[in-house]
Design goal:
413 residues, mainly alpha, three-stranded antiparallel β-sheet, single chain
Length: 413
């Protein structure tokens, strides 16, 4: 059981404090209300300045700061919360049940706070808006639309489906990058071990035998000396840090952000993958918002802010302006030349037939499949390239060690 401290206002406006022991924040509030204390200004856990508890609190704070609420966490919460709401369980009770079951500490704390806010009379969407680290504008807007329309359980199911699709798309893209990253790390580690520890041993043998070293061997020995020299390592690290700082500084400017995001869409292999993934995300999110009853201008503003690429965000903003002036989304997107032609044509057909929600869903399905196929193709291309790169790095070190031996054998012959 935990002790909680409440600030309570009486009928005359005077503020007093009361202590109550309960197993949770919601239970403490219920106990106070059963005692006749209805005007509860605040309710928090009592602080006991005990060294053990203080250290535990600090560890919990650090753990919570390092923990992120993932898309998967929100998808699971949305699906389970929809089931509880559909079953007729009260919202406060549903949030309490979800908080007790949550394994993510940040999400658990947020859900308890949501339960407290809703119990005080706030709407769920307004309560969620106070926690942007867990619930973004897209999530809050769809929940608000569900509350207004009285279909919160249906909207939560749509949110769960949307988040599950987003998580699947992210996993597909990550899977394409996992293999080359691991292989690159292993290749660099092997190269450094052979250059730092193996090559110097052969250098001593070659010096004793007075062997004429080939150009490749001299080059690799120079690299080995540079890696083993702290001054060169420090200079290299400073140069890398300077380049990273310059990149981040330039990317933070509007012109740099626009230039780099534009270049990312034109990078061979990866550019087309980014474009298709952005098209799928735009179609899925915009369609889900529209079906949930979110106004189209608000929906476009939310999709614009969650695009992840400033060039795509600008194209969506132009579509938003086009609608404000009585135009069509497809025309504005076509002018920007960001989205694939087929996607624009399908959106145009949806606008003409009045079934844009269904058409956006089909566009999302198509390009999610395209992303999956692109990821498989990319992986099949990257794998042999990485084998060639690793073989080249290891082969260069081995050749630099064995070429002098061939020279020695020729000399002895």
């Amino acid at each position: 059981m935990t002790t909680y401290v409440a600030r309570i206002q009486d009928n005359d406006g005077r503020i007093s404090q009361r202590k109550v022991t309960a197993s949770s924040l919601g239970e403490a509030r219920t106990v106070l209300q059963s005692q006749g204390y209805t005007r509860i200004q605040s309710l928090r856990q009592a602080q006991n300045f005990n060294l053990t508890k203080l250290l535990d609190f600090d560890l919990q704070t650090i753990n919570m700061a390092l923990t992120n609420v993932t898309v998967k966490d929100k998808a699971i919460f949305s699906r389970q919360f929809a089931v509880l709401v559909n079953a007729g369980v009260g919202m406060v009770r549903s949030l309490g049940v979800m908080a007790e079951q949550a394994t993510n500490p940040k999400l658990k704390k947020t859900l308890w706070e949501l339960s407290s806010d809703v119990q005080e009379g706030n709407s769920l969407s307004d309560s969620m808006r106070k926690h942007p680290q867990c619930f973004d504008g897209l999530y809050v807007s769809m929940v608000q639309a569900g509350e207004v329309g009285g279909v919160l359980d249906e909207v939560m199911n749509r949110l769960a489906t949307l988040l599950e699709d987003v998580a699947r798309l992210q996993n597909q893209i990550k899977s394409a990058l996992t293999y080359p990253v691991i292989v690159t790390i292993l290749a660099v580690a092997i190269f450094l071990i052979m250059t730092v520890f193996v090559l110097p041993t052969f250098e001593g043998i070659f010096n004793q035998l007075h062997v004429q070293l080939p150009a490749l061997t001299r080059f690799m020995l120079a690299i080995s000396d540079a890696i083993r020299t702290p001054q060169y390592v420090a200079i290299t690290l400073l140069v890398i840090a300077g380049l990273v700082f310059a990149y981040r500084t330039y990317y933070a400017t509007p012109a740099g952000h626009r230039t780099i995001d534009g270049l990312s869409l034109r990078v061979p292999l990866f550019g087309e993958l980014i474009r298709k993934a952005a098209t799928a995300r735009f179609s899925r999110t915009f369609g889900a918002l529209s079906r949930s009853g979110v106004p189209i201008l608000t929906a476009l503003a939310i999709v614009r802010d969650t695009a992840g690429n400033v060039v795509i965000s600008n194209a969506i903003e132009q579509a938003r302006h086009e609608i404000q002036t009585g135009g069509m989304i497809s025309i504005a997107l076509q002018k920007e030349r960001v989205f694939p032609h087929m996607a624009i044509q399908m959106i145009s057909i949806g606008e003409e037939t009045g079934e844009i929600d269904q058409m956006l869903s089909k566009v999302a399905d198509f390009y999610e499949n395209e992303v999956e196929e692109a990821v498989k193709s990319l992986t099949s291309i990257i794998e042999p390239l990485m084998i060639v790169v690793v073989g080249g790095m290891v082969g260069a070190v081995l050749l630099s060690m064995y070429l002098p031996l061939f020279t020695l054998y020729n000399h002895l012959g």
